[in-house]
Specification:
Length: 113
């Protein structure tokens, strides 16, 4: 899906809803949006709060448009452990990139009484 801005710049959007992942997946309540202009890719969290989590410059001739696609991948960490995480595939002209969405376990603060 392509849109034109008021400046005539073409960009595309790709929404990833993570609520269909495993019921207790750490990313299940997040909504991720990837956006691409002719010169840059942005990834933002829409939910639970609006945060830019990734940007990458894109290069290529003006005759090529950016492409975005979300993939859910299973990564085998050890012989008995696997994780399921979203990956954004994006590219322009003759280059394709893959970005694994990082999940950082939130810090827990303990109070000693």
């Amino acid at each position: 899906m392509f849109y034109f801005t008021s400046c005539g710049e073409v960009f595309t959007l790709a929404l990833l809803r993570t609520n269909f992942l495993i019921k207790d997946h750490p990313l299940k309540d997040m909504m991720l949006l990837a956006m691409a202009t002719l010169s840059k890719v942005f990834m933002v969290h829409l939910r639970p709060g609006l945060t830019v989590i990734f940007t990458k410059q894109l290069k290529g001739p003006a005759t090529t448009l950016p492409l975005l696609a979300w993939q859910i991948v299973i990564i085998q960490v050890t012989d008995s452990s696997r994780v399921i995480d979203p990956v954004l595939a994006f590219g322009r002209h003759d280059t394709i990139y893959f970005y694994l969405v990082p999940f950082v376990v939130p810090c827990i603060t303990l109070s000693l009484v």
